[in-house]
Design brief:
Blueprint: H1 7-26, H2 44-48, H3 50-56, H4 63-68, E1 75-76, E2 79-80, E3 82-86, E4 98-102, E5 113-117, E6 119-120, E7 125-129, E8 139-143, H5 144-150, E9 157-161, E10 171-175
Antiparallel strand pairs: 1-2, 3-4, 4-5, 6-7, 7-8, 9-10
């Protein structure tokens, strides 16, 4: 026994189906935007010294994020990297600091490897790691002339201090005349 629909019922069914199909199309999500190299802006330290950041971000899982953080890679091959600043009290542009990375949350002796020292980005600007405690990322760019004025002095230049962090491992500091 077959069920036959009247022509009016068929038309109503077709109209209902078209309406439902049309509203379903309105609820579809737009396709995601195309992927870009990085969704982050580049840190001023990497803008001023791209070669330094290229070296520090080599092998980083998220290179764009590393450039956003001024050359501090958060993960390599899925392993979380922590940082530790030594030889200065973190945020001290007048004392050259040494920066180490480690995978151990305490950065125990033997697990830390040298990453980089504070660095002159120009003759007056310095890349300064600002945390002496163990951290994931914390880099700022300072103007040595501004920092010297805060101390009541004129001038202000950034100078590299050779071997400050060991043989062949330089750091940098601001110097006021």
């Amino acid at each position: 026994m077959s069920h036959r629909r009247s022509p009016v019922a068929r038309r109503l069914l077709v109209v209902t189906w078209l309406l439902l199909a049309g509203t379903a199309a309105c609820h579809r999500k737009a396709p995601p935007p195309p992927a870009t190299a990085s969704s982050h802006p580049i840190h001023p330290a990497c803008t001023l010294d791209r070669d330094r950041c290229e070296r520090l971000c080599q092998g980083c899982d998220d290179r764009g994020d590393c450039f956003y953080r001024g050359g501090e890679c958060l993960r390599r091959q899925g392993v979380v990297l922590l940082k530790k600043d030594e030889n200065d009290d973190g945020d001290d542009v007048f004392t050259p600091g040494c920066h180490y990375q480690c995978t151990d949350p305490t950065c125990a002796d033997g697990s830390a490897t040298f990453l980089a020292g504070d660095a002159c980005l120009t003759n007056t600007q310095i890349a300064e790691w600002t945390q002496s405690r163990i951290h994931d990322s914390c880099l700022s760019v300072y103007d040595c002339q501004t920092e010297c004025r805060r101390r009541g002095k004129t001038g202000g230049t950034c100078k590299t201090v050779s071997d400050r962090c060991g043989a062949g491992r330089a750091s940098a500091a601001c110097f006021c005349p």
